[in-house]
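Good morning,

Attaching, inline, the backbone tokens for the sequence recovery test we're adding to the shared suite. The designed sequence is right after.
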């Protein structure tokens, strides 16, 4: 049987998964909402991936996890590779775009920028504080304007005079948007203004002080919004590349890392039938008083983390 590799990216808003072969071709992929339940989301993701996967021809021999819940999900899946989002996105992007110099990424609740030189990430910045430059902001404004978030790009591209929307933060942007609606600005101009505000907020916060060099690759869920892509291209004065699988790039990157790594463990799709639970334990072994997260399968402790010194190891057992 041919070898395959699983990569899962679990974020606060969405959970993404891909299975690739040894040449990085995608054999199965899925994108679902996390809905505040990363364990449940991963079980559902695995079930959906299994439906697409040819188990007669391939077997998964290594698994990687990334994203905000990477340790939790890594413990549950028995992952052979657990990496942060910066590394996963950089590896995924440079694999498919070796010449890339700047990676823009905007997700549901956070965003990041990664600067690359000679195929290696040399600098990055993240923003998890201001929602005005994220997908959550776009979703809330689409609802306010009575359209689906998927329609934003189409509306924005019809605009010839985008409305100026304050982009300093969510509060200012929302109040300014309401004011512009009340003034009677056309809907497509307001929506184009919202897209410009997202790009401006991102560049003024996440990209502040960073030298953005072409080629530029834009990824994350917001990269599917043509209005925001156009806003970045106008502001940066260069073409912005959007990969069709850009929303899966973190999962792709960690799957590639799992393939390159030395760890090997055959993956069992039966995980969807297993019961997992987490428990917090306070160490108290020193002044750090670390909170340790323990993950159990049934009554069996399968992993734990959070201790900053060796004294916390006794809590794990």
């Amino acid at each position: 049987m041919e070898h395959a590799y699983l990569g899962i990216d679990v974020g606060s808003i969405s959970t993404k998964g891909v299975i690739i072969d040894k040449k990085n071709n995608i054999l199965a992929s899925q994108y679902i909402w996390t809905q505040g339940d990363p364990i449940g989301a991963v079980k559902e993701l695995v079930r959906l991936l299994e439906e697409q996967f040819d188990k007669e021809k391939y077997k998964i021999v290594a698994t990687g996890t990334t994203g905000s819940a990477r340790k939790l999900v890594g413990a549950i899946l028995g992952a052979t590779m657990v990496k942060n989002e910066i590394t996963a996105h950089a590896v995924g992007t440079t694999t498919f775009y070796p010449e890339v110099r700047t990676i823009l990424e905007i997700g549901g609740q956070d965003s990041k920028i990664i600067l690359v030189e000679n195929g290696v990430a040399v600098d990055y910045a993240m923003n998890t504080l201001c929602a005005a430059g994220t997908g959550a902001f776009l979703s809330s404004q689409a609802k306010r304007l009575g359209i689906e978030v998927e329609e934003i790009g189409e509306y924005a591209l019809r605009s010839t005079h985008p409305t100026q929307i304050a982009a300093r933060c969510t509060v200012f942007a929302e109040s300014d948007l309401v004011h512009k609606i009340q003034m009677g600005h056309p809907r497509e101009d307001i929506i184009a203004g919202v897209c410009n505000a997202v790009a401006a907020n991102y560049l003024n916060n996440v990209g502040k002080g960073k030298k953005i060099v072409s080629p530029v690759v834009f990824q994350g869920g917001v990269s599917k919004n043509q209005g925001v892509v156009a806003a970045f291209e106008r502001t940066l004065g260069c073409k912005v590349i959007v990969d069709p699988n850009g929303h899966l790039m973190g999962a792709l990157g960690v799957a590639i890392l799992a393939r390159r790594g030395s760890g090997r463990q055959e993956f069992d799709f039966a995980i969807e039938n297993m019961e997992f639970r987490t428990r917090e334990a306070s160490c108290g072994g020193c002044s750090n008083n670390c909170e340790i997260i323990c993950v159990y399968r049934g009554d069996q402790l399968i992993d734990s983390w959070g201790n900053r010194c060796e004294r916390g190891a006794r809590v794990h057992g």
